Amino acid sequence: MRSRIHLSEHFTYSKLLIFTLPSIAMNIFTSIYSSVDGLFVANFVGKTEFAAVNLIMPVLNIMGTIGYMFGVGGSALIAKEMGEKKSEHANRLFSMIVLVSSCLGIFMTVAGFIFIPQISSLLGAEGTLLKCSVLYGRIFILAMTAWIWVYEFQLFFVTAEKPRLGLIVTVGAGLSNAVLDALFIIVFRWGLVGAAAASALTQIIGGVFPLIYFSRKNSSLLRFAKPVWDIKAIVHCCINGSSEFMSEAAGSFVGTIYNLQLLKFYGEDGVVIYGLYTYVSTVFSAIFVGYSNGAGPVFSYHHGAQDYDELKNLKKRSLVIIGFIAVTMFILSQLLAHPLAALFLHKATQLIPDAVHAFRIISIAFLFTGMATFSSAFFTALNDGKVSGLITFLRTFVFELGAVLVIPLILGGSSIWYSAVFADFMAALTGVIFMVALRKKYRY
Predict the structure, then answer these.
(1) Is the pLDDT of residue 335 over 90?
(2) Is 7 domain-assigned?
(3) Which pLDDT belongs to residue 258?
């Protein structure tokens, strides 16, 4: 088998899986090393510190996913340019996108460092919880620009036909995070400071290497060139990637609302349980996100090349793959609920029964998460950011946010765990409706 699959090829199931596997693995490893801090803090620092990390991380994640927006929107735009045989212009667009996102990263680092105490207070943190949230947040945010690079370069490696190199970078950064966490927290006993420092250094490792790689002569389809100052392209990139940004950012925003509601109904213990679910579900959902990100440039290329037969082929095979993964993830989540709860709650074993109950309810959403994720990414790949953004907006700000605010008022605090299930079911249904309604327009 050839070691390299090109965007222009006809894709069978095996080729599609082989091509997207590095992207899936990248997202899984990224999710795992994002969860490493939580695992170390929960087991070697303390419950309050674990709650603090879970409380402030959604805010930091909203900032970091700016890179996801530029990566997804930029990849679709660049792959389309390549499909139209405009390689030189694609490299200049690539350079401009990275430069603009870097400037935004610097701005958010400064603003975030200043206002993190006020933000933590607004999230409901008080006393020790507030101090821990500010401490972790201020250290982590120093690496915000690098975190943006990590997000966007994951996507650009796929577009550059170097998904395996992207996987190597991600695995290397993930291993670094685990080693640094163990060193700083267990050996040096730096506690929460060590966890934050380990995460910040990990982002720098994961972000700077791709920056150096694309700055030099390489064998990929992309490298930095003189940026083309095209405001229209940047706006298009942001609009087209807005759905994925909105999905991540709105998910973090909804997570913040979850934490506020849980503090109200369950206190600090509720935030701890939700933190456990967040870490685990992020790893599980990474498979859906990874597949959608990996397949996206292929859809974009054939859309640009007007190869409609291949678009139909890609869509059909993708839906089968997503459906299989969805059922598998649901079964695994039910079987692993107790072992995963015990893994994170070693120092708070009294919370394990409640955590298992909550996780088994929320994990029903995995049956629908794949379709909700893929349908949004599908329209992004077709450069239809409006439809993609609408699917994501409805999923988070209408379905999930509405559910987390309204359902507990009607059915009581324990019903809050059903919010994600309702949101993903409705989002999947919405995605199916749009895919059916627009099939003639895009000829897939």
Answers:
(1) yes
(2) no
(3) 85
Q: How confident is the model at residue 3 (pLDDT cuts 50, 70, 90)?
A: low
> How far is 408 from 261, CA to CA, in rounded Å?
9
Return the closest-CA partner of residue 60 out of 185, 193, 192, 199: 199
pLDDT surpassing 60 at residue 1 = no
Q: How far apart are CA 174 and CA 151, in angstroms?
A: 14
Amino acid at residue number 65 = T
Residue 77's identity, in one-letter code, is: L
Average pLDDT rounded to a whole number, residues 56-85: 90
Asked whether residue 252 is assigned to any structural domain, the reply reads yes
DSSP class of 382:
T
17: part of which helix (H) or strand (E)?
A: helix 13-44
Residue listed under structure tokens 């089968």: 320
- Beta carbons within 8 Å of 410's beta carbon, 6+ residues apart: none
Report whether 19 contacts 25 (CB < 8 A). Answer: no
Can you tell me which residue has the tokens 């959608």? 292
Which of 49-58, 138-147, 243-252, 355-364 is the most confident on average? Answer: 138-147
Count of domains in the chain? 1
Domain that holds residue 29: 13-442
Q: How confident is the model at residue 436 (pLDDT cuts 50, 70, 90)?
A: very high
Question: Predicted confidence band at 96 (pLDDT cuts at 50, 70, 90)?
Answer: very high
Contact (Cβ atoms closer than 8 angstroms) between residue 416 and residue 407:
yes
Q: How many helices (H) and strands (E) does the chain have?
A: 17, 0
Q: Is residue 8 part of a domain?
A: no
Say if 365 falls within a structural domain: yes
